[in-house]
Design goal:
Elements lengths: L1 E4 L5 H7 L9 H30 L10 H10 L2 H19 L6 E6 L2 E9 L2 E5 L8 H14 L3 E6 L9 H9 L4 E4 L2 H10 L9 E3 L4 H12 L5 E2 L7 E6 L5 H12 L6 E6 L2 H15 L5 H9 L2 E4 L3 H11 L3 E5 L15 E4 L5 H6 L25 E9 L1 H17 L3 H22 L1
Parallel strand pairs: 1-11, 4-5, 4-7, 5-6, 7-8, 9-10, 9-12, 10-11, 12-13
Antiparallel strand pairs: 2-3, 3-14
Helix pairs in contact: 2-7, 2-8, 3-6, 4-5, 4-6, 5-6, 7-8, 9-10, 14-15
């Protein structure tokens, strides 16, 4: 990790320090993804089988997971594993149930009632990665809010394993959350299948879930296609920023940094500390702990584009964090809640030494599908609302229209939209004529 002192850097150097590793957005990737999407759109299941053979090196006899495969997956997990999935699911469900929106009803003036109501997105497709590290936790994070929102069609795609089947833990997690249709598909072709539909895979209206650069590019392209599907959020490599003061435990800080660095070689981890001895101790802990990790080669690549920043005070540390807008922000400081109101941009925040990022990934209850690559400045963590759409409703009595109709007429005239004004005037004139008749 690069070690720097913040106050010694000029504006350009600070900008460069916080720059993420470049996302793979080269022209060849975009072209290849577009080719995959077109093949799936044109040739459906046949293209999916061929792409699985070409890109994954696997021959699969069927795209959809069978009931027998679900049963085998359940039998393949031990009781401790099943209990862990159930405990995590319970916490995730409890937190997301609290997010269900309530209808809004406001009488803005007497006789004018305005409402805001929510409806579930009818069909959603969930993508769960399963490369070097299958992620059953992601199945929970996506499937639970989709079910709570009431999405009628909920299907899931996950890459096939070496034996041609889906990861058992992912299947058990999916089935426990009411997902009964799972397809053994990965990469851009999985996104294409869900966005456009095939003979076997139903078309959905919105796709969700993390993935590699091919998945990310595919989600962006289908979201721009009128016949495709919307996406949950833009995303980049995973990341964490830890703010530590002299009360921080260096071993804990190092463990948090390493837990994020092991996601992939393009992950980025940043330490911002007010204390030079703490920084030195964290560096020592990083070296010692990294040596014992099974994914230490991936960690080493991640740390090459990561840094440890020494700042003069906590206010500056918070400024750095807001400027970076991390996916995960850990506050290992003496009084973390005191600065929470000053945090303006982060996907998920972890307060204090007893809140490792790991619990957010798995089982605290919050969602681990988060905006990355600085998108936390304008996007939120995934929640029930992402699986819903809202619409407004208005109902007027004749008295209500009489009260606000002249205002609408005036504004329509200001904008030169005669028909708008007349749609009001005809009703007001009708009311006036009825009043006149009643008086005659």
């Amino acid at each position: 990790m690069k070690q720097v002192v913040w106050q010694e850097l000029d504006s350009d150097a600070r900008e460069a320090l916080l720059r993420r590793p470049a996302l793979v957005q080269d022209e060849r990737l975009q072209t290849e993804v577009a080719r995959i999407l077109d093949r799936v759109r044109q040739h459906g299941d046949l293209a999916l089988m061929e792409l699985t053979r070409e890109l994954d090196g696997l021959e699969i006899s069927a795209l959809e997971v069978t009931d027998d495969e679900f049963v085998a997956a359940e039998d393949g997990l031990n009781s401790r594993q099943r209990e862990a999935l159930a405990a995590a699911a319970a916490n995730i469900r409890a937190f997301h149930e609290a997010q269900l929106p309530q209808p809004v009803v406001v009488e803005t003036v007497p006789g004018v009632v305005c409402e805001r109501v929510s409806r579930p997105i009818r069909s959603v497709g969930l993508y769960v990665p399963a490369g070097s590290a299958p992620l059953p936790s992601t199945a929970l994070m996506l499937a639970i809010p989709a079910a709570l929102a009431g999405c009628q069609t909920r299907l899931l795609c996950t890459p096939p394993q070496a034996d041609g089947g889906a990861d058992p833990a992912i299947l058990v997690a999916a089935r426990s959350c009411g997902i009964h249709r799972v397809f053994k598909l990965g990469g851009a072709q999985a996104i294409a299948a869900m966005a456009f539909g095939t003979e076997t895979v139903p078309k959905v209206e919105k796709v969700f879930g993390p993935g590699n650069s091919w998945v990310t590019a595919a989600k962006a392209q289908v979201a721009q296609d009128p016949s495709g599907a919307a996406r949950d959020m833009p995303a980049g490599p995973s990341e964490v920023l830890v703010i530590a003061d002299d009360a921080a435990n260096p071993a804990f800080v190092a463990a948090d940094l390493l837990s994020q660095a092991e996601h992939g070689p393009d992950s980025q981890v940043i330490l911002v500390t007010t204390n030079a001895p703490v920084r030195a101790a964290v560096m020592e802990e990083l070296a010692a702990q990294r040596a014992t990790l099974s994914r230490r080669d991936i960690v080493a690549q991640s740390l090459e584009s990561s840094c440890a920043i020494l700042v003069e005070d906590l206010d500056t540390a918070v400024q750095v964090a807001n400027r970076y807008a991390p996916e995960h922000l850990i506050l290992q400081i003496e009084n973390p809640r005191a600065v929470l109101d000053d945090i303006q941009a982060a996907g998920s925040v972890f307060l204090g030494r007893w809140a490792p990022e790991t619990v957010g990934d798995y089982c605290s209850g919050t969602n681990h599908v988060l905006p990355t690559y600085g998108f936390a400045r304008s996007y939120s963590s995934l929640g029930v609302n992402d699986f819903l759409r809202s619409m407004t409703v208005q109902e007027l009595t004749s008295a209500g229209l009489a009260a606000i109709g002249p205002t609408a007429e005036t504004l329509a005239a200001m904008e030169g939209l005669d028909a708008h004004g007349r749609a009001v005037r005809r009703r007001l004139d009708f009311l006036a004529s009825q009043d006149a008749e009643s008086l005659s």
